[in-house]
């Protein structure tokens, strides 16, 4: 069995945007981060107790892992947790593609172990899950999670690992006010009943739920997220306006309300951080206690927006 139970801060930090090249119009988010900026973010996050960093081999095809490792250089390895992923869709054709991809991730991040390793997309649960077992036994990975899996796939992965004395300890799925598939499919209830931590990603819908963007102020031109969201920003206006109002009563932003909502729903949100001040926002989000009627109102407005933000990489769960 794993020697320790998976523990993590109430909010994890996402680095999907860190995979962008920094060139205008080149990247999913249109981010233009610098090495100094990333180091400043890391230093502030670590000092505030946000110490779980989530990345993936596929984010910028290794770039996010590389720059994350560089930004963490100088911080004690025991003072932070690394979460990265095996993505079947980019697997090689060697004898053990999972171990191969993990080794490349370890080299890029400058470490010899990963605290939380995910099967990024299901593809073939029976094929890929068993290859995690020797990595767990060797200590190169400490805990296993599955991402973008449906309930049947989560259960199968857990059964395979269970036969070897391990288990699925975390699930990471897209979950936001606009996309509550994991709730409706019973996945969040399953996690609660089996002591599995549910990590929610795209809580802010790549910025569309931050309150910063609207029809008059669209997301960055040329980015993939602009193509996905700018067309639906008018439909989100009533929701983001109400989120902003809820936040104003507490000295917080709409983004912080969205984060507080995800926490109130019993999940661990993974929030992308591209500026040091985002860390201040996370501390405010942790102090927000939304009333049941506020949660219900926000969810009703989200349903009324009638948008589908499921990513092209996601199956219908």
From TrEMBL:
Pfam families: Aldo_ket_red. Keywords: Oxidoreductase. InterPro entries: AKR, Aldo-Keto_reductase, NAD(P)_OxRdtase_dom_sf, NADP_OxRdtase_dom. Signal peptide: none annotated. The keyword Coiled coil does not apply. SUPFAM superfamilies: NAD(P)-linked oxidoreductase. CDD domains: AKR_unchar (cd19103). Residues 11-302 form the NADP-dependent oxidoreductase domain. One of its GO terms (molecular function) is oxidoreductase activity. One of its GO terms (cellular component) is cytoplasm. This is Aldo/keto reductase. It comes from Actinocatenispora thailandica.
């Amino acid at each position: 069995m794993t020697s320790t139970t998976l523990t993590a801060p109430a909010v994890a930090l996402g680095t999907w945007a860190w995979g962008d090249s920094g060139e205008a119009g080149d990247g999913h988010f249109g981010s233009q981060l610098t090495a100094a900026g990333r180091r400043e973010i890391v230093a502030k996050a670590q000092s505030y107790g946000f110490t779980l960093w989530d990345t993936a081999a596929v984010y910028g095809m290794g770039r996010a892992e590389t720059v994350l490792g560089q930004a963490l250089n100088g911080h004690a390895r025991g003072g932070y947790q690394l979460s990265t992923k095996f993505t079947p869709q980019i697997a090689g054709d060697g004898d053990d593609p999972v171990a191969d991809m993990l080794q490349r991730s370890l080299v890029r991040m400058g470490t010899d172990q990963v605290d939380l390793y995910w099967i990024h997309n299901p593809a073939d649960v029976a094929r890929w899950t068993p290859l995690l077992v020797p990595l767990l036994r060797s200590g190169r990975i400490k805990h296993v999670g599955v991402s973008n899996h449906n309930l049947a796939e989560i259960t199968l992965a857990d059964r395979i690992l269970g036969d070897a004395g391990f288990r699925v300890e975390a699930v990471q799925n897209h979950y936001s006010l606009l996309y509550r598939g994991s709730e409706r499919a019973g996945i969040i209830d399953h996690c609660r009943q089996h002591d599995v931590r549910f990590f929610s990603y795209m809580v802010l819908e790549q910025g569309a739920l931050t309150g910063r963007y609207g029809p008059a102020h669209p997301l960055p031109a040329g980015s993939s997220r602009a193509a996905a969201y700018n067309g639906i920003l008018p439909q989100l206006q009533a929701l983001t306006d109400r989120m902003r109002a809820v936040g104003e009563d507490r000295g917080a932003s709409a983004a912080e309300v969205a984060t507080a909502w995800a926490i109130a729903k019993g999940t661990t949100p993974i929030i992308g951080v591209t500026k040091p001040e985002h860390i201040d926002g996370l501390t405010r989000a942790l102090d927000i206690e939304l009333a049941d009627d506020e949660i219900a109102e926000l969810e009703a407005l989200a349903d009324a927006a009638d948008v589908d933000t499921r990513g092209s990489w996601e199956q219908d769960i």
